Amino acid sequence: MLDQLITLLTGFVTELWLLIPIGLLGLIRWGMWLFKRIPALFYRPVYNDFDTSATIVTPVYNEDPVLFRLAIESWIANKPDRIIAVIDVTDTQSQAVAEEYAEHVETMLIDVPGKRPALALGVDHTTTEIVVLVDSDVIWEADVLQKLKMPFADPKIGGVGTRQNMYPSDGKRATFWERMADIYLDIRYSDEVPATTIVGKAVSCLSGRTAAYRSGLLQSLREPFLNETFNGRHCMSGDDKRYTCLVLQSGYHTWNQLNAQVYSTFKPDFKGFQKQRIRWSRNSFRSDLRALWQGWVWRYPYLAVMLIDKTIAPFTLLLGPIVLIFSLAIGYWQLAIALLIWWHLSRAVKILAHLQRRPGDLLILPFYIAITYYMSLIKAYALFTINEHKWLTRAVAVVDGKVSRVSESAQEGKATAEGQVRA
Q1: Which pLDDT band, with edges at 50, 70 and 90, does 206 fall under?
Q2: String of DSSP letters for 80-94
Q3: In 3D, which of 21, 89, 100 has the Cα closest to residue 423?
Q4: What is the pLDDT of residues 227-257, one digit of tens each?
Q5: CB contact set of 302 (below 8 Å; sequence gap of 6+)
Q6: Cβ neighbours of residue 339 under 8 Å, at least 6 residues apart?
Q7: Can you tell me the distance from the alpha carbon of 298 to that of 338, in angstroms, rounded to the nearest whole number?
Q8: How many Å apart are CA 45 and CA 256, to the nearest integer?
Q9: 351 with 183: CB under 8 angstroms?
Q10: S-S: 288 plus which of 96, 182, 307, 344, CB 3.0-4.6 Å?
């Protein structure tokens, strides 16, 4: 009898030990989700008849010519005052594509490696009130520019972002990893972005795929933009996050026009998906940790809480798989099954906005759940390698403290292109 009682008590204590931490963590995580989701429900885009002059600036490096043409034609349809394509001197193919649209597109060649110098050069040559920074593979809907201008009726708004979704890299059918990227986009633009827009008008990152700014403001921020460092190392990527933080740090607000729809390609395979996530995570950790350390972000209390949560959340998320593995190891099948069912139900709720757009993606929900936990490990890796600075799509890296070309073929192309320019 005593042995049975001891066994029951031991089982109860074990179950309690497993349930309490996962239960408390679940309450915290759902509380944070509601902390974003409820304000997001009150978001509405700005509507008015405000108009002003605008220049599109796109940094170009080895862009797919089909995508580049589609992107240019979509920008032209929006009728900006100017379009400036800043193209790396090694990229003769993109130069040829831009020349096809010479009536609408001004081409500037740059021999300094990296995306930031290309952006800064285009911004320096902007003479309109607004400059719209656009990646060279981004396709706009017909009314994007008109909608992007509207929030600038408020003189306190320094930057405005867009609503983004995935465009298949082959123009036809999305791969599994492109669909995953699309899910993550819908999560961001259904919760965090509208919440930080409506509460404090302080979006933490206006995505570089398409973001509009006051031209004079960006021109005044040239030096800190080009000379950002972290732990004594020159920062190369993370240009969109840097511009956004500098705008907020300067006392301006940032806004997202979620009715301004654009489409961008993503890497179609696992390797590209993973590398992109690592780079983005490193950029976010650098920027967010600096903002919290410097203290300026506390002028936007809601944003500050979001940054802290984003820094901590990837690591707290790992408790779930740990409990699942332990419950399977001790034969506590009820908890393991309950966890799996709960994960599917809860994740379906959190990606409901995406499932409304793409109901067929319900079939890949189990894979998405597994990937969310894998991404937590990726973010941990990104944090421990935070001092590495690499690009996925540009043959450049930080070498000996400087942004440099890192491939021999790129160097050879640079020499050839420079010879053509001199000729």
Answers
A1: very high
A2: -SEEEEEEETT-HHH
A3: 89
A4: 998 888 888 888 999 999 999 999 999 999 9
A5: 195, 196, 199, 200, 202
A6: 22, 320, 323, 324, 327
A7: 40
A8: 8
A9: yes
A10: 307
**CA–CA dist 193, 86 (Å, integer):** 29
Number of helical (H) and strand (E) elements in the chain, helices listed first:
17, 12
pLDDT higher than threshold 50 for residue 419: no
Residue 139 main-chain phi, psi, to 5 deg: -105, 130
The token pair at 190 is 């259904």
Distance in angstroms (rounded) separating the CA atoms of residues 384 and 377: 11
Q: What would the mean pLDDT of 385-402 be, rounded to a whole number?
A: 62
Locate tokens 């894979």: which residue? 367
Pairing type for strands 82-88 and 105-110 reads parallel
Q: Which residues contact 57 (CB under 8 A, 6 or more apart)?
A: 84, 86, 119, 122, 123, 126, 131, 132, 133, 134
Q: How many Å is the Cα radius of gyration of the chain?
A: 24
CA dihedral 227, 228, 231, 237 (to 10 degrees): -110
Question: How many residues are listed for the chain in this entry?
Answer: 423
How far are the Cα atoms of 107, 197, 229, 253, 273 from residue 286, in angstroms, in the given order? 33, 22, 9, 21, 20
Q: What are the tokens at 296? A: 């300026």
Residue 211 bridge partners (DSSP): 133, 161
Q: Max alpha carbon distance in the chain (Å)? A: 97
Domains defined for the chain, CATH in brackets? 25-423 (3.90.550.10)
Which DSSP letter does residue 312 get? H
